[in-house]
Structures are given as structure tokens and as C-alpha cells.
């Protein structure tokens, strides 16, 4: 009853190459630029709202980088822009959600291996379990299973669905990686008033699920933890819980005012070192990158951000007819007649 | 859109296709068996669905026959069952989950409303949700609390869901087969008080192709609409689920008094077959809607309004509703006081027949 | 039962009692402040309700003033919040929980429907549930998915619940105070798009006694029924929440064309003030119901049927419904296409005015 | 992160007196007789259904006996007849539920300190947390807090509400005792396919909640574990989890057919010794009771069962008007008019 479940040995524990390390930096830089710009876009009226992931770049890029897009599938919340970018999701399609163009985003989830953006806290954690159990049912041999990677926050961990998901996954030995970004806050509620026991990872043992708590601001550590978890799940040994300890350096969303519940001093102390800056120093210290590379990475990130902004600005509203056409695969007479009435009455407008 | 099959169903079809007397439980079990055999992407699961075969035995024998991968027990958590269904559908499966009783669908409402009903829309049609959720529904079996609920008004209000309820074994077999072959989520409400009643089920001579089903090849014809189960001239009773049988009893009694009652089994509670309602009431000029659910904001209001909208000029009386009351479904001893009984339905008929403009 | 207060509300009441211009957010905040001060058994809680004062600032400053025991943050779990409310009520408290947004009431539906709505009944009146559940509701603010839902039809169908929605700051203040003083559970649906609109709030000269409230002492008079917000002769618009303001705009425009529109704010969505509906439409002989929720099985069907039932002889046209469509609430860009807009309401009015028996 | 939370020392650890031990036996005998008779009543058509608690008498009587009716409150499921009896609940009122007279029962919950019978699995676990937090809010000094005792099963532990309840209770340090009867089955599903990790008690550590797993067929052990848990919670130290390991010796309910999912051999092996018989032997061996006492206890139990059956048989249906009158504290005009219509139309019947 007290033996802690442990992760299986990792098949492929090769260290990241220098190219890969530099790529991780470039991804983090791209995410940082897009993220901070998106906040500016909101202030400029380009988009109505945005949920920044400032400070979570290492957790998001490091985990997203471990995904095998040929067979895995990712279930994000509303804050996984960095994961999307690391996986190569079309970022205009991704950001279109925040322009209020389409709930869930305009990118293609099946091709991207990245499920539609999920606004219900803990809403998609169970989907990951179902998808993962589907991999088992499909009869792929152990070692070749597709793995579901589901993201959620410290706040989300309070939802009943997360418990049901962990229990289902463990009972069914489903190949799922539960990836918690413990960023210290759920809007205004700090982790200590949210997560009894202090850690989501600790809960995993109760289900017999191996868990790791990882420094979420260390992109390499996050990558390695995620890669190990994937190897475990892929080999048919069941789910893994990863809790990446990080910090939400920005507001909950552009509508939030963190000054009401934490001071700038708190933020400085609790946030720790900026994960991007930290990785930069490390790459320079290890001789993996030089200042020129860093400068080029930021220049590329700026260019990328500008292209995405242009895409977003150019994005018109979707035709209203999609409201009706996309409800079902097979529409109904009742819905068709509502669509007809809508067409008729909006022509007069 | 609607199909006219009167009480003589057996004789109508007997010439063309095999007919068997089955209970609704047997018809549903057989439909699931055939669905599992025909479509390797289907999976059947829920609480006690596997080894036990379900508390109502609807999945009896299916695990033994189709294997533990295709038919399985889940832990006891309805949100888990439905949330898992979403993920299975995203992975290309056709889940046929069961919620053990109507009242235990509530813990899963979040997953049903926010996820199952919306994933196709949210994903712009790229992640369809071909999920058929079976819910043993409605009352009448003197069961414990929360085992006699009618959730059709809730489900019918949710964009992205389709909702159907069979009233006899034939429809149970065909509507379940049909629902499970479609690419959209269907809430399949089984009238549990009718599980053990036998009736004729007409089978297709050959297995119909799923693609042609919507187009209307017999015996799938008319599956998407309401069904006139008894023709009549004086008043239309509209009902679904277990209330259809009760309305047929009422019609027999009314006939003794010379009142010729038409009974329309709505079958699809979303989308509602408005043309069938208008056709029937356009003829009878009077209508009574009967359902077990509480009156206020029940589906009877929608049905009544569709009738009024379509038959305003010809209606002789405002549509009557004979329904459960706005009270929690009571314990067995009071069940008969709560449910629309023959007398209350007859009073409803009387009110529309005797109505005189003031 | 219904109260006739036309747009001249300020002047009517100004002579007797203090009037202040407040936004609905301010009016609600003030009501909660006074409720907490007056009744030591009340507790206010939910996600971000304490320190932050709620994402809409409805509970702003209340924790600082009334303490962390009376006003507190919960973990992020709606079923937990509502389930906890049941236990607090059983222990003699008067919980005033908040669900942060309409769409996040779904995870709590099981506790709301099976527990809050039934505990008084189940316990034979010995465990009342004086719970006022505040739900920022409806759309119109270009918000993310699940932040623009209209759940009134679902709530109104549940036996054991009462449901109310204010349309202006005055009603917000008084209806919340009233709801929180009653011994039964009330779902309090706040039209979030109206939080920041100011309007006159007339306060009582002295704090009314909770017991007399139901009996009707001013300014509590008529709190239990619908309210005519604009009198008219040609057609009645029935609405609630944010749609009331839109209907008043429509009435102004229609007046330019010589059409005299009456606007009835239903306020109570359960129980519905049927006499007020019948009184108004009995006079105008035509009605259009307007709501944000999807059409099918929406509360508009119930309202329409109550009107038809009560005014069958005098109605000149079938009741029209101008509502959201049977589609998931869309993203901001399409919100104006989804919500009943001025034109669609005017078309609805036109249809009932031009209706001729065939 | 790995230190297991522990129970506080117990204030009042006096062993049970001989009188108390004999009372426990009498209670268990009464419960056994009523329980087995209720199954017979169902076969005889006296009641439409019943959920027997055969084999769980020790778990139920031992825990119920620890309740202080002056200040604690109990939240049962549909299977806690033994707890009700141990607490002195009116048993005709209790059994009336199974006669389909009134959902929740006809006894008085406030006076009995026993909440209405709950048919929703895990439905009332959160109520216990709310009620318990109310004790804290009421400002009673530590050591004098009322404690909520909530019962649920191994199956129920899978529900999201149980997780939310444990987390809320731990965050709020609410005086709740979570009492799980792990009887091996949830209808047809055995614990090993239900409870990942194998034990509900193990999960408690993840919330920082102390937990004990106790032999649920040993009435004294159950009593002591419950008394200790009450002392901990009462002193303001927060919630406790007790998992009583027992066995559902009968069918799930009178509608169930266990032969479909377990063999009689399985039952014999898994059930272990009958808890009543085991306690009888112990009392005799310890000289606490003699055969005469045992015989008298069973005689009294038989008499009691007969009286309850007579009460149940005499119980008429409730008047239909209660359907309407008990919905609200303040009824509504709409409901009154439905009641009037019902009265009018049922008079003609
Ligand atoms: C079911 C549900 N309840 C409430 C909300 C409102 N809400 C959105 S985000 C949030 C906080 C989430 O915190 P956490 O899970 O820690 O994620 P983070 O925002 O820190 O990334 C809340 C309460 C929601 N979206 N869904
Ligand atoms: C929410 C909910 N889902 C399903 C059911 C149907 N049901 C009643 S009891 C039961 C099994 C419960 O098992 P457990 O919690 O172990 O308690 P036990 O019956 O063994 O005492 C089920 C599935 C229910 N009552 N409530
Ligand atoms: Mg967080
Ligand atoms: Mg059990």
C-alpha cells in the first residue's frame, strides 16, 4: 500500500543534440514574442482577449517537443499556445480563437494532432483517456502505442473529472500522460488554497500511477521528463503524471488585474528566474549557442510574430451560415429551416 | 417524413420480411449484437454492461460473444463514461455507452452538453461524435429515487444532440440500429417500463446499407420521423416512450364513447417531426400532448407550440398538456398519482372536445 | 400579481424613497453587502469570490468587510461548490454561492437537480434549502466558449427550483435581496451584458421585514411576478434578462411606425406569472417571445403555450418566438448573427401583425 | 511530499466496557435479523425492493456506535440500515423507503442526526463537507466541533464528487470522517476493476488527509478507528479517511443475481468469517457474554423485526397531496393550481 509506483526505464535516453537544444531555444523565443505581442494586440483592439502563458514557455515547449506527431495526440486547455507552436500548429489558426473568430480555433485538429482549444477547466482530460484507451483497443503492440498528452492546471486538478480520468486511466492502463502546469495560481486563488496536500503529483500514487514533479522552468528537464513518460506509456505500462512547477508571470487573462490578489514583490520572489533568460545563459555557458544565434532567434521570432499578426488582422469573420452547417454531420430539416429564416432576415439588414 | 403504421404492423410487413415476437429488451440486445458484428469500430460500455450484461440485461451475452475489448465495464462514474466516449470518438471509434438510469445522466451533463454536443461544431466537422448514448428512461416501475426521470426536454434543448425514444420492440430494434449507424450523437431514451413487453419485430431481408438509411429504404423508411400508431378523426394524442401504449389504451376506451382518437408516436424528440404534427392535427383539429416529465418547460410546450404555429387557423381548442406535475418524481406509492393516467388523459381529451370559444 | 412600472420608474417612486443611479454590478454588490450584514447565517462563496471580488466584481470588498468566514474562495469545482451548499443549508446556513459563468453550471447540475431541488421534498420539509445560486448568464460580451449560455429552460423544468432574472439595477437589487430572504432555492440569473449599465434604484425607507415581502409591502410589492416595463396596445413583447433592454429599443423604433408595443419583463422564469401574460396579451391580442437561448424546447415554448392557453379566443395570430438558433453559442464574431437582434424582433412583430387566417 | 499524514492522539481511548460490547452484539443481531427479514419481505411482496447489508454489520454498527448524537451528523447511502439502527433511528420510518412510501424515508433527519437516505452514488459526500465546514464557521471551539460522518462504497469512490469532497475538506480542514465500506463489489464490478491503486485509503495521503484501513468485519476495531477519527476531526485537525474492508455477502439488491458475476465458491473464499459469528465467538471466549445472553439477543432481535414488519405492513400510502405540499417551503400559484387540478381529477377516479 505504500510502495510508490515508479516509471519504467527509458528506451531512448539519448541526450538532446546541440541542434535540438538550439531549436528549443528558438521555439521558446518564438513563443515569448508571440505571447507578449498578443497582449499588446489586445490593448490595440486587434483581439478582444488573450490568456498569456508568460513564464510557462519552458514547460510548454519542453513537453510539446517530446510529442511524436505520427502517433500521439495532445489535449490542450486555453493556455497551451507554447505547446501548439512547439508542435508546429498553424498559429494564425490557433490565435483566431482569441480574435473571437471560432471557438476552438481554425487549425485542423486531426492533422495537427492537437485537439481544439478547450475552455472548460478539466473538460478534455477524460477525452485523453478515451483516446488513449482507443489506442489499446486498436491492438497496436506495446512499444508502438500512440500516447495522449493532456494538459491542465493546478486549479483544474480540483475538478472531479480529473479524478475520474486518473482512475479510469489507471484501471485501464491507458497510455496517457497527465501534464500539470502548476503555475501557482487559478485566477486569484493560490495553489495552497486549491491543492490540498500541496502537490498534484503526490495524488498519483493513490491510483498506482507513477509521477514526477519537475522544474517546469527548465526546458531540458521538462523535455526529458515528458520523453520518459511517453516511453512508459507507449510501452503499455499505463499512465504517468508529470507536475511541472512553474509560475504564471502575467495576468490570468487580459481581463484580469493581478494587483488585486498579489503584489509585484510576491511576483518577483515567487516567479524565480525567467525560463527563457535562464536557458539563454545555459546555452551560452555550455557553448551550445553564441550571442549571434540568440539575436537571430529573436529576430526570427519577431518576423514570425509579425506574420501571424498580419494573418490575424487579415482574418475576416466566418460566414454566419457556418453556425448552422457545422452543428451536425447530417443536418436536420428543423435546422435547415432556421438557417433559411436567418438568411432571409439577415439579407434585409 | 412520417410513416403511417397502424396497429396492424405485423400483417403489413409479414409478407415481405421475417417477423419475430420479441420483448424490447430482446430487440435492443439483438440490435447491439448485430451492430457490434457489423461495425468493428463500435464499442459498448458502462456500469455493469460487461459481465452482468446490464441491470436490464440489454447487453446480455455481448461481452462473451464480442470480447472484453468491445464490451466492457467501466468504473462507477458517468462523467468518466461520457468523457471517455468523446476521446474514443476522436480516435475513430463509435461508442455506444450506457448510463445505468436516467437520473444518473446528470453527473455527465457537462460532458454531454459542452463536449459531445459541440465537438463536431468546435472542430468544424473534423471530429464527429458518432456516439449513441443509451439511457433507460422514464418511470412506472416503482423504483428508488432518481430511477424514473424524463430528461427529454433537457436533451432536446441542447444544440448538437439528436434525441429519440422508441415505444415498441420493432422501433427499438430499428431506431437503435439506425442511431448507431449515424455520424452524429444520439441520445437513445429507452422506456424501461416497456422492456419486457413483447411485440412483433420485422427484420430486413438483407442488412441495409448505413448510407441508404437516411434516404429511406424499407424497413428503415420513416425512421427519421414520427409515426401514426392509430388513425383517428376527432383528436390527436401526441406521446413518446411508455406513454404511447397508455394513449393507445385511452383510444380504445374513447372509441367506446364514439370518440375516434389518433395516436402519434413522436419518436424523435429532436429534431421534432413538425410536418407530422401539423398533418395529424390539421385533420383532427384538436390535440393533447402527453408526457411523464413535469409540465413546466417540458417538451409538451414545444410540441404544443409547433402545433399551434402550424394549425392556428384550424385548431378548435388550445392544445392540452397532460403531464407529470412540477414535483420531484415520487416514490412508488405515489407514482400512479404522478404519471398521466387514463383518466387524466381522458379529461384532457374532454377539455379539447368541449372547448367553446368564449 | 404583476406590477406595472413603466419607464418613468424614477419619478414614480422618487417622492417616497431614496433613489440612486447605480450599475447592476453596484446594485448587486450593495444587496449582498446588506444581506450579509442583516443575516449572520448568510455565506457568500465561489471561485475567486473572496480576495478578487469575483471576475465581475459583484462580491468586491465583501470579504474585507465581512471576513473570510462569511465570504470565501473555494477550490475550482462547481459540483463541490453546490454540494457544499447543500451541507451548509442542512447546518442552518443560507448559502449564496456563485458559479463563475453560466456554462460552468453544468458540472454542478447533478447537485442542483438531484440534491438542492429535492432535499426539502425528500426530507419532508425538515431540511429546507435556502440557497440563492448566482449565475452570471446570457451572452453579448464577445466572450470565450461556454461564457454566453442561457440555462433558464433547464432550470425552469426542475421541480423544486425557483428561477429569476433581473433586467435592470433596481430589480437586481430588490430581487436578490428578496431571493436571499426566502426559504427555497432560487437560481438567480444575472444578465452579464447589463452589469455596467446604470439605472435608478429606489431603496426602501426602512429595511423591509422578510416575512412581509411575499405579502407585498412596497418596494417589495410585485417582486414575485412579471413587470410591464412599457405599456402598449398592438403587440406584447415578452422577454427577460438582457433582452428586455433590446425589446425596449425595438418598441421605440416600432413606435415611429405607429406600432404601439407593450414590453413585459417576465422576471420570474419559474414560477411563470401566467396571469400577467394573459392580462397583457388579452389586451394586445398578439405576442412575440424573445430569448437568447436556442429555440427548441426553450422557455419561449412554455411562455407561448401559456399565452395560447389563456388567450386562445382573442389571439389574432400564433405567438411568435424570436430566439437564438438551435446551434451552439458562437464565437464573438458571429454573436450578433445568433442573438435576436432588432431586425429579427421587428420581423417577428410584423409576422404577428400581418397574420391573416388562411 | 512523501511523509504520510497521521492521526492525532486520541483524547478518550478508554476500552469498551463489557456492557458496551454486549450492546454492540445486540445491535448487530438486530441488524442481521432485520436485514435478512427484509429480503424475505421482498419475496413475500411486502416491499418492492431492498439492498441488503449482509456481512457489513460490524462496519456499520461499529462506526454508527461512535457517533455523538448531540453534535454529530451522519450522511448515509442506501445501504446503511445498520448505522441507522445503531444510532436509534426509527426503523419503520427508515424501512418505509423500501416499501416505496417516501424517497429518503419517513424518519426525522434533524432529530435522528441521520440525513435522508441517498440513492445517488456519492451524492451526499459533499453535503458532509459543507455541513462540517458549517461547524467550523459556527465558531465552536476545537475539541467541541460537530463531526460529519459520510458513508460511501468502493464503487462510489470513482465519482468525481468524492475527489472534490476530499480536496475541499482538506483545504478547509473541515471536521469530516469519510467512511468507506469497501465491500469488494459495486453491483457486478469487483474492487480491482474499480479502485485503481487497490485502496481508497491510500488516496487520502495525496490530500494530506490521514487514513486508516481497518478490518471492517471486526466491530471493535471499526468502533475504535471511528472514535479516533472523530477525536481528530473534533479537535479541529481536519478530515480523516477510514476504509473498512468488508464483503457484500448478499446480492446488490433484491433485483440482483450475483450468480452472473461471481460463484458461490468465490463468495465463500472472499467473504471470510461472518462478522456476527466472529463477534459471538469472541464474546464467549472472553467471557463477556454467555449463550443465554446470545439467545436473548437473538430473541429480542426477532421480536424487534416482527414489530418493524408489523409497522411496515400497517403503513399506508402517503396522501398524494404531499407531492405538492412538500416541494417548497413557500408554494407557488402555478403549483397550487396543479394540485387543484390533481384533486379534481383524482376525485373522479
Ligand atoms: C469548469 C470551469 N469552471 C470555471 C472556469 C473559469 N476559469 C477559467 S480559467 C480558471 C482558472 C484555471 O486555473 P488553472 O487550472 O490553474 O489553470 P491556469 O489558468 O493557471 O492555466 C477558471 C476558474 C472554467 N473555464 N471552467
Ligand atoms: C450516480 C449514480 N450512478 C449509478 C447508480 C446505480 N448504482 C446504484 S448502487 C451502485 C453500485 C455502488 O457500489 P458501491 O459504491 O461500492 O456501494 P455498495 O452498493 O457496494 O454498497 C450503482 C452503480 C447510482 N445509484 N448513482
Ligand atoms: Mg494555474
Ligand atoms: Mg461496494
From TrEMBL, chains A, D:
GO terms for molecular function: branched-chain 2-oxo acid dehydrogenase activity; magnesium ion binding. InterPro entries: Alpha-ketoacid_DH_E1_comp, DH_E1, THDP-binding. GO terms for biological process: branched-chain amino acid catabolic process. Keywords: Oxidoreductase, Pyruvate, Thiamine pyrophosphate. Its EC number is 1.2.4.4. Its cofactor is thiamine diphosphate. Pfam families: E1_dh. It catalyses: N(6)-[(R)-lipoyl]-L-lysyl-[protein] + 3-methyl-2-oxobutanoate + H(+) = N(6)-[(R)-S(8)-2-methylpropanoyldihydrolipoyl]-L-lysyl-[protein] + CO2. Belongs to the BCKDHA family. This is 2-oxoisovalerate dehydrogenase subunit alpha. It comes from Arthrobacter cavernae. The lineage of its organism: Bacteria, Bacillati, Actinomycetota, Actinomycetes, Micrococcales.
Automatic annotation (TrEMBL), chains B, C:
SMART domains: Transket_pyr. InterPro entries: THDP-binding, Transketo_C/PFOR_II, Transketolase-like_Pyr-bd, Transketolase_C. Pfam families: Transket_pyr, Transketolase_C. The keyword Oxidoreductase applies. Residues 22-197 form the Transketolase-like pyrimidine-binding domain. GO terms for molecular function: magnesium ion binding; oxidoreductase activity. Keywords: Oxidoreductase, Thiamine pyrophosphate. Its cofactor is thiamine diphosphate. This is Alpha-ketoacid dehydrogenase subunit beta. It comes from Arthrobacter cavernae. The lineage of its organism: Bacteria, Bacillati, Actinomycetota, Actinomycetes, Micrococcales.
Amino acid at each position: 500500500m505504500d510502495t510508490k509506483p515508479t516509471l519504467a526505464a527509458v528506451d531512448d535516453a539519448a541526450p538532446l543534440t546541440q541542434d535540438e537544444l538550439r531549436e528549443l531555444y528558438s521555439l521558446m523565443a518564438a513563443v515569448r514574442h508571440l505571447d507578449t505581442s498578443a497582449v499588446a494586440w489586445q490593448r490595440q483592439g486587434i483581439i478582444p482577449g488573450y490568456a498569456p502563458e508568460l513564464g510557462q514557455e519552458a514547460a510548454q515547449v519542453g513537453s510539446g517537443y517530446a510529442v511524436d506527431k505520427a502517433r500521439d495526440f495532445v489535449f490542450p486547455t486555453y493556455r497551451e499556445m507554447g505547446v501548439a507552436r512547439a508542435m508546429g500548429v498553424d498559429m494564425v489558426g490557433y490565435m483566431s480563437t482569441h480574435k473571437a473568430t471560432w471557438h476552438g480555433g481554425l487549425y485542423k485538429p486531426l492533422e495537427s494532432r492537437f485537439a481544439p482549444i478547450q475552455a472548460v477547466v478539466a473538460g478534455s482530460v477524460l477525452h485523453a483517456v478515451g483516446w488513449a484507451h482507443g489506442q489499446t483497443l486498436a491492438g497496436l503492440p506495446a512499444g508502438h502505442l500512440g500516447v495522449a498528452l493532456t494538459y491542465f492546471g493546478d486549479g483544474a486538478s480540483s475538478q472531479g473529472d480529473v479524478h475520474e480520468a486518473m482512475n479510469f486511466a489507471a484501471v485501464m492502463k491507458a497510455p496517457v500522460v497527465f501534464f500539470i502546469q502548476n503555475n501557482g495560481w487559478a485566477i486569484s486563488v493560490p495553489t495552497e488554497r486549491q491543492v490540498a496536500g500541496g502537490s498534484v503529483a503526490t495524488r498519483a500514487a493513490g491510483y498506482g500511477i507513477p509521477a514526477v514533479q519537475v522544474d517546469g522552468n527548465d526546458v531540458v528537464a521538462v523535455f526529458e521528463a515528458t520523453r520518459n513518460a511517453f516511453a512508459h506509456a507507449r510501452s503499455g505500462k499505463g499512465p504517468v503524471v508529470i507536475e511541472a512547477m512553474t509560475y504564471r508571470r502575467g495576468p490570468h487573462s487580459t481581463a484580469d488585474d493581478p494587483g488585486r490578489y498579489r503584489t509585484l514583490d510576491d511576483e518577483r520572489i515567487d516567479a524565480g528566474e525567467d525560463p527563457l533568460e535562464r536557458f539563454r545563459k545555459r546555452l551560452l555557458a555550455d557553448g551550445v549557442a553564441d550571442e549571434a544565434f540568440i539575436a537571430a532567434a529573436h529576430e526570427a521570432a519577431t518576423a514570425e510574430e509579425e506574420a501571424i499578426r498580419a494573418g490575424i488582422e487579415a482574418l475576416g469573420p466566418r460566414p454566419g451560415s457556418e453556425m448552422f452547417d457545422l452543428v451536425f454531420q447530417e443536418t436536420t430539416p428543423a435546422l435547415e429551416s432556421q438557417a433559411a429564416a436567418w438568411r432571409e432576415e439577415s439579407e434585409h439588414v | 417524413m412520417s410513416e403511417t403504421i397502424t396497429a396492424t404492423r405485423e400483417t403489413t410487413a409479414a409478407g415481405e420480411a421475417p417477423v419475430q415476437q420479441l420483448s424490447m429488451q430482446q430487440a435492443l440486445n439483438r440490435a447491439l449484437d448485430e451492430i457490434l458484428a457489423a461495425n468493428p469500430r463500435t464499442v459498448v460500455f458502462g456500469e455493469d454492461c460487461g459481465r452482468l450484461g446490464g441491470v436490464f440485461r440489454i447487453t446480455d451475452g455481448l461481452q462473451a460473444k464480442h470480447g472484453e475489448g468491445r464490451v466492457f465495464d467501466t468504473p462507477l462514474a458517468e462523467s468518466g463514461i461520457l468523457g471517455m466516449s468523446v476521446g474514443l470518438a476522436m480516435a475513430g471509434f463509435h461508442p455506444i455507452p450506457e448510463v445505468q438510469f436516467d437520473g444518473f445522466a446528470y453527473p455527465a451533463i457537462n460532458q454531454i452538453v459542452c463536449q459531445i454536443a459541440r465537438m463536431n461544431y468546435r472542430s468544424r466537422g473534423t471530429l464527429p461524435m458518432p456516439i449513441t448514448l443509451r439511457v433507460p428512461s422514464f418511470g412506472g416501475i416503482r423504483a428508488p429515487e432518481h430511477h424514473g426521470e424524463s430528461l427529454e426536454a433537457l436533451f432536446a434543448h441542447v444544440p448538437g444532440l439528436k434525441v429519440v425514444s422508441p415505444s415498441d420492440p420493432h422501433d427499438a430494434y430499428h431506431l437503435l440500429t439506425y442511431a448507431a449507424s449515424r455520424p452524429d450523437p444520439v441520445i437513445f431514451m429507452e422506456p424501461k417500463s416497456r422492456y419486457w413487453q413483447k411485440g412483433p419485430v420485422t427484420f430486413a431481408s438483407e442488412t441495409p446499407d448505413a448510407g441508404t438509411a437516411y434516404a429511406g429504404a424499407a424497413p428503415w423508411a420513416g425512421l427519421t420521423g414520427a409515426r401514426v400508431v392509430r388513425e383517428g378523426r376527432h383528436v390527436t394524442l401526441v406521446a413518446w416512450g411508455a406513454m404511447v401504449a397508455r394513449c393507445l389504451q385511452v383510444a380504445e376506451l374513447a372509441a367506446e364513447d364514439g370518440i375516434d382518437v389518433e395516436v402519434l408516436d413522436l419518436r424523435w424528440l429532436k429534431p421534432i417531426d413538425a410536418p407530422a404534427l401539423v398533418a395529424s392535427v390539421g385533420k383532427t383539429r384538436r390535440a393533447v400532448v402527453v408526457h411523464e416529465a413535469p409540465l413546466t418547460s417540458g417538451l409538451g410546450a414545444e410540441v404544443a407550440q409547433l402545433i399551434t404555429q402550424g394549425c392556428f387557423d384550424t385548431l378548435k381548442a388550445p392544445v392540452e398538456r397532460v403531464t407529470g406535475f412540477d414535483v420531484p418524481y415520487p416514490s412508488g406509492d405515489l407514482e400512479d398519482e404522478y404519471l398521466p393516467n387514463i383518466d387524466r388523459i381522458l379529461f384532457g381529451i374532454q377539455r379539447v372536445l368541449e372547448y367553446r370559444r368564449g
